[in-house]
Amino acid sequence: MRTEDVLAAIDTGLWRWDNAAGTVAFDAEAARLVGLPAEEVTLTESAARSRFHPVDWNEIHGIVQLAVAEGTLAEARLRVMSEDGRQVLRTVRSRSRPFGADGDYQLIGTIQEVAESPPGTAARTPVTGDWRRSREAFLLDAGRALAEARSTAEVLRVAASLSMPGFSPDGLAVFGVAGDRLTTIGHHGHKPGDEQPFSNMPLDTDYPAAEVVRTGRAIYLPTPEEYRRRFPATWPLAERFGRRSWAFLPLIVAGRTMGAWMAGFAHPVAFTPDERSVLTTVARMLAQALARAGVEESERELSAGLQRSMLPTLGPDIPGMKVAARYVPTGGGLQVGGDWYDMIALPGGRFALVIGDVQGHDVRAAGLMGQLRIALRAYASEGHRPDAVLSRASRFLHGITDSYAPEDHSSPRFATCLYLEVDPADGTVELARAGHPEPAVRMPDGTVLVRTTAGGLPLGIDPDTDYPTTRLALEPGETLMVCTDGLIETGGHDLDSGWSRLRTIMESHRELDLEKLADELVQAVHGPPSHHTTGPLSDRREDDIAVLLLSRETTATEVVAVRSTALTVAQAEPERIAGTRRQLRELLHDWADADQVDSAVLMVSEMVTNVLVHTDGDALLTARATGPVGKRRLRVEVTDISDELPHKRRPGEMASSGRGLLLMEMLAHEWGVDPRGQGKSIWFELCEDAPPVTYEGV
C-alpha cells in the first residue's frame, strides 16, 4: 500500500511548498482539506494563500524562518477559508520540515483536520515556535543585518527583505526631511514613479508620514475606513494601492526625528501590543542604520573629494611615451592616506614623475602629502636637479613636522619619495631616491629587472641628507614601473616575495596596454572590484597604494631584441656586489647554458671587486644581451676612473689575488681592456650558441 493511501485513510494530506519557485503542491487529500477538488494540484503561492485565513498564513512565515534557522519542525494551526473569504470551513494542523538554505528552501509536511478551538481561545496557536520566540529570533536577525549595512541602499534592501513574524508588510517606504518638506529616501513593493505624489510634500500636509515627523509619535491605521476618517485629504493617494492596514513610525536618532517609516499590509492587521512592539523596535534599528550609513557615505564622499583634489591628472600625451597611474586608499577609516603620485612639466619638453608615501593613513598624513606635493612641484619648476629637489623637500618636511608640540606622539613624520626626470627625446631618466622602493623595468621580451639605484634617508628625518642621482636609459619597448610599498608588501609579503609577485604579473602581460597592466597589478593584491567599491575586499586593504607606469614606444625599424642593465657600485657600498650578481642572474634567467651564467657571475664579481680594491673610484657596470633567443651575445663592461691598466700575473698556489684576468681568459669567448681617456673599461663577451669554453691545462 502506498504511503499516500495510508495517510488518506487517516484524513491526512501531503503538501510541498517550494519557496524558490513560489509554488505549493497538494496531494488529493490535502487538496480536499483546503477546499479544493480531491485531486493532486499545484498552485501558485498567492493562490494557496487565498485558501487560508490571511493572519494565519502570514504567521507561518515567522515559524518557518525559525525552523529553517534551527533545523526543527514548523507546526501551526491554519484556518481554511471559503472562496469568498468570509467563512471558516475547517481548521487544519500543519507539521512541516524545511529543506535547503535560507531563501531557497522547500517545506514538506502534512495537513490534518483538527477540532475547532473552544470559544474565547486564540485562533493562532502554533505548537512549535510561539509568537514571542519567533519575535526575538526575528529581531536578532534584523538587528544584525541592519548593523552590517554600510550604505543607504543596503539599509533599504535589508528593510525590504525583513519577514516579520506573523504580519510581514508587502510595501515599505522611508521618508526623510529636507527643510520643511518631506522627501522619499526609498521604497519597496511599489512601481517606479509611484513615489512621485509623496515626494517633496510640505510637512503641514494632512498625510500620516508628515504628521509622524511633526509629532514624533507613531500612527497605526488598521482599516481603510480608519485611514479615510483620519486623513481624508490624502486617502485617494493611498487608496489605489489596495492595502488593508498601515503603520507609520518615526525614525528617531539622538532625540531628533529624522524621518518616517511606512509599512503597508495587504491583509488586515490589528496592531496588537506585541505587533506594535516589533514595529517600534524595527523603526529604531532602521533609524540608527540609516544614520550610520549617512555618516559613512559622507565620510567616503569627503575622502574621495580630498584625494581627487590632491591627486593630479597625468596631463597631455607625451610624444613617444605613455604614462598610466593608479591610487588605491586603505580600507579603513576615511580611506585617505599619504601615498601620492605626480607628473610635472619641465622646460625643453622634459617632464618629471614623482611618487611618494607620507607615514600614516589618516587626515594628517593626507594633509602633509598635499603640502609636500606642492613643495616638490615648486622645486622642480625652479629647474633644480633631482638630488637638489629631494634635498630641499627633506628640509621642508623636517621644518613643518618638527614644529609640532612634543606631546604629539605622532610627530615628526617622514616620507619616502622617488623623483624621476625624463627626456622623451632619447629616453634618458635621471632619478633620486629617498628611502623608497627601487624602480623596476620590463624589457621588450618580457623580462623584468629591479633597477638598483643609490638612495638616501626618507624625507624629513635629516635635513642635511644628500640624495645621489642615478642615470639610466629607457630603451624603446621598455616599461618603467614605480610604486609605493603598499603594492609590494600587502598580504604578508616582504620586499623580495612582493617583488616576485609583481614580476610574475608584469612578465605575463603580453599586451602593450599600460592601463590594463596597472589594473592587473592592483588586482594581484586586492581582487578586481576592490579599488572601485567598498565591501569585503576593500576591508582587507593593509596600506595605501600608488603606482606609476612609463613606457617608451617602439617603431617598426627599431630593434627590440635587446636586454640590458646598468648600475653603480660605490666604494662605500661594497655590499652591493651581491646585488650585481643577483641582477646579472635575473638578466640571464633564460640563458641556454647555466654554466655560462655561472661564469659570467664569477667574472663580474671579480671585476667589480678589483675596482673597489685597487682604485679610489666607483665601479660602473653595464650588461647588454642582443640577438634572438638561443643565439644571443652578452657583453659586460665594468668602467672606473683609474688610468692604471691591469696586467696578467702568475699567482702562486697560496696567493689570495691576481687571478682576475686569468679567469676571463679561461671563461670568456672574448675579453679586453679599453682605455677611456680618463679611466678604463674592462669587458668580456659570451655567445649563447658557442660551445662551452674548455679548461684543459688549467
Give an overview of the whole structure.
By secondary structure, this protein is an alpha+beta fold. It folds into four domains: 3-114, PAS domain (Beta-Lactamase), CATH 3.30.450; 135-301, GAF domain (Beta-Lactamase, 2-Layer Sandwich), CATH 3.30.450.40; 314-552, Phosphatase 2c, domain 1; 562-647 and 657-687, Heat Shock Protein 90 (2-Layer Sandwich). It contains 19 helices and 27 strands. Strands 3-2-1-6-5-4 form a six-stranded antiparallel beta sheet. Strands 9-8-7-12-11-10 form a six-stranded antiparallel beta sheet, with helices on both faces. α4 (54-70) packs across α5 (131-148), α5 (131-148) runs parallel beside α10 and α11 (363-381) runs antiparallel to α12. Keywords: ATP-binding, Hydrolase, Kinase, Magnesium, Manganese, Metal-binding, Nucleotide-binding, Phosphoprotein, Protein phosphatase, Transferase.
Summarize the structure.
The protein has 698 residues and is α+β, with helices and mostly antiparallel strands.
Tell me the layout of helices and strands.
Elements: H1 3-9, E1 12-18, E2 23-26, H2 28-33, E3 41-44, H3 45-49, H4 54-70, E4 74-81, E5 88-101, E6 104-114, H5 131-148, H6 152-161, E7 171-178, E8 181-188, E9 201-202, H7 208-215, E10 219-221, H8 224-230, H9 235-239, E11 245-253, E12 256-265, H10 273-310, E13 321-328, E14 339-345, E15 351-358, H11 363-381, H12 386-401, E16 415-423, E17 428-434, E18 440-442, E19 448-450, E20 469-473, E21 479-483, H13 485-489, H14 495-508, H15 514-526, H16 536-539, E22 545-552, E23 562-569, H17 577-587, H18 594-614, E24 619-626, E25 633-640, H19 660-667, E26 670-675, E27 680-687
Antiparallel strand pairs: 1-2, 1-6, 2-3, 4-5, 5-6, 7-8, 7-12, 8-9, 10-11, 11-12, 13-22, 14-15, 15-16, 16-17, 17-20, 18-19, 18-21, 21-22, 23-24, 24-25, 25-27, 26-27
Helix pairs in contact: 4-5, 5-10, 11-12, 14-15, 17-18, 18-19
Organism: Streptomyces candidus
Keywords: ATP-binding, Hydrolase, Kinase, Magnesium, Manganese, Metal-binding, Nucleotide-binding, Phosphoprotein, Protein phosphatase, Transferase
Enzyme class: hydrolase
